[in-house]
Amino acid sequence: MKIAFYAPLKSPNHPVPSGDRLMARLLIEALERGGHTVTVASELRSFSSDPTGKERERTDREADAEVERLSQLWSLEGAPDAWFCYHPYYKAPDLIGPQLARRFGLAYLTAEASYSRRRNQGIWARNQDHLIEAVRAAAVNICFTRRDRNGLLEGVPDGRYVLVRPFIDPAPFLAKEPRPQPGRLATVAMMRAGDKMESYRMLAAALVRLPHVPWTLSIVGDGPLRDEATSLFAALPSERITWHGQRSTQEVAEILQQSCAYVWPGTGEAYGLAYLEAQAAGLPVAAQAVAGVPEVVRHGETGLLTPAGDVGAYAAALERLLTESDERDRMAKAARRFVTEDCSIERAARRLNDILHEHLGARA
Fold it and tell me: Residue 174 and residue 260: Cα distance in Å, rounded?
């Protein structure tokens, strides 16, 4: 198939690293591994924190211009077979794909669409209408978590939904055998406002409770709130923490392979691809049982999941991973096996191909 790919929140070509950008790139690669031709159709970012007044007018003008630009292009060069929209939600609806799908008779698909009924009022009502329209029109909506699927079912009970487990390309993390150093913890996360800082805050608070346990922590990541993140750990001995800043995938893999556990509370995480990368490198995980995290970390098998917001329980999970070496080693092996067998891009490519054939029929 010829697939037009669009991510209204953040283009796969966006310069700032994030989980959204990575997942968009992984979806494109998985579709290409299935033999499809994928083109990023538009760089239009519909994301808005306040879709009113002039901001809404500007976004509407840009969306209309994109519809006309692509209509003219496809009239000359031929239209694709399908429009694939990644991660539409109330702050970043797809304002161009549904129009083009109707105009050219394209199959329309979404992946990781999310819906919350409480956003139906006030300034977000219009965007919610766009989202519902897209989900209802889709030949299939691909969901990465049961939480997202259940939310969509609430908004569009008669929609078409399938589950695909979140996935990564595990190759960089499988390239070398793990060489875990006892007591060395690792985390990889951007330093920005909101849930990321809440996770950093919780991690620091949990570590403060473990002065009696030997540990060091490698922190990989950077962002606009680097100074604030650093200050959260000020009560801890500086020699226990190494700040690596932003690193390449290969460098991250090497840091993980030398660590014995991956620690990231995951406040507000949709699911967290970094958890899969850590497990592929052979690390058990300590996280909270929130949102979609249980989709990528198996409690008691590949890691430990604790109740949301419970710093004491999280500190106890860290201590357990640091001190129970046999259990830690068992989880490490299971974690690597889990990603290799269930969450690899090769498996996802096959699954996506099956979905396209099932829901798009002869087009695929």
Answer: 15
* Residue 4, phi then psi, degrees to nearest 5: -90, 115
pTM value is: 0.92
Q: Give me the domains of the chain, ranges plus CATH numbers.
A: 2-167+344-363 (3.40.50.2000), 171-342 (3.40.50.2000)
Q: Scanning the structure block, which residue is given the tokens 């699927």?
A: 149
Which three-class secondary structure state does DSSP give residue 306?
strand
* Sheet with 2-6: strands ordered across: 37-40, 2-6, 82-86, 107-111, 140-143, 161-163
Query: What dihedral angle (degrees, nearest 10) is formed by the CA atoms of 319, 320, 325, 327?
Result: -160
Torsion of CA 197, 203, 204, 210, to 10 degrees: 180
What type of residue sits at position 18?
Answer: S
Dump pLDDT digits (tens) for 115-160: 988 888 788 888 899 999 999 999 999 999 999 999 999 999 999 9
Burial 309-332 (b: 16+ CB within 10 A, else e): ebbebbbbbbbebbeeeeebeebb
pLDDT digits (tens, 9 = 90+) for 168-218: 999 999 998 999 999 999 999 999 999 999 999 999 999 999 999 999 999
